[in-house]
Design a protein that fits this description.
signal; single chain; Double Stranded RNA Binding Domain; alpha/beta; six-stranded mixed beta sheet; elongated; 3 helices; DUF4136 domain-containing protein
Length: 146
């Protein structure tokens, strides 16, 4: 019994350490959504964004060939194909890092979400904000059509 006790302690300690390495990346399209028709987008900057995530999303979409503008939550400019909203969650672990990013692509007339993407990376698997935006946008644009 004395030989087995240290093994149980080691297994218990190892199981406690695995909770810190979590990551998730998902994307979903609403049925009937075809993002290939999207040419122009408006990224809605939320008032609590102090990290210019709206500009990162704008830059990423522009690199994919889209015409993108960004601004406050006002009526979306006429002729815009989609409105893009986001929720960014930040965490402190020695330094501030983006824990989670959710991007919603919405119909500008109804505000209904037609596509959603999410990325979650905890401290051990953290990515830069640019990499998180890239991951979410790439997954949304590559999501299978329903």
């Amino acid at each position: 019994m004395k030989r087995i006790a240290p093994i149980f302690v080691l297994i218990g300690a190892m199981s406690l350490m695995t909770g810190c390495a979590v990551n998730r990346a998902t994307a979903n399209l609403s049925p009937g959504t075809d993002l290939s028709k999207m040419k122009t987008a408006y990224v809605v900057k939320h008032d609590k964004d102090k990290n210019a995530v709206n500009e990162l999303i704008k830059t990423k979409l522009e690199s994919r060939g889209y015409s993108v503008t960004t601004g406050p939550d006002v009526p979306v400019p006429a002729g815009t194909d989609v409105a893009v909203t986001y929720i960014d969650k930040w965490m402190w672990d020695i330094t501030m890092y983006m824990l989670e990013l959710t991007i919603n692509v919405r119909d500008p007339k109804t505000n209904f979400p037609i596509a959603t993407g999410n990325s979650l990376h905890t401290s051990l698997t953290r990515k830069s904000p640019e990499a998180m935006v890239d991951e979410v946008v790439t997954n949304i644009l590559a999501a299978p059509k329903n």
